[in-house]
Amino acid sequence: MVMDWNRIEGNWKQFKGSAKEKWGKLTDDDLSLIEGRREQLEGRLQERYGKAKDQVRQDVDDWLKSLH
């Protein structure tokens, strides 16, 4: 079952570590500012990794699928 984004947003503190593991270029400040909002996460990933929006969206989808 794919986790739904509302659960990530509501429990961001639990998922920050996993996000930091996957995307090591995200700073603690980035993770605090994101606060579980997907648009914020995607925007920060674009800034840090210089990837296209579509690629970042796919990366986030893949990360979401990997969470249990």
TrEMBL record:
InterPro entries to which the protein is assigned, alphabetical: CsbD, UPF0337_stress_rsp, YjbJ, YjbJ_sf
Transmembrane parts of this sequence: none
Pfam families listed in its UniProt record: CsbD
Domain CsbD-like: 6-57
SUPFAM superfamilies, alphabetized: Hypothetical protein YjbJ
Similarity annotation: Belongs to the UPF0337 (CsbD) family.
Annotated protein name in UniProt: CsbD family protein
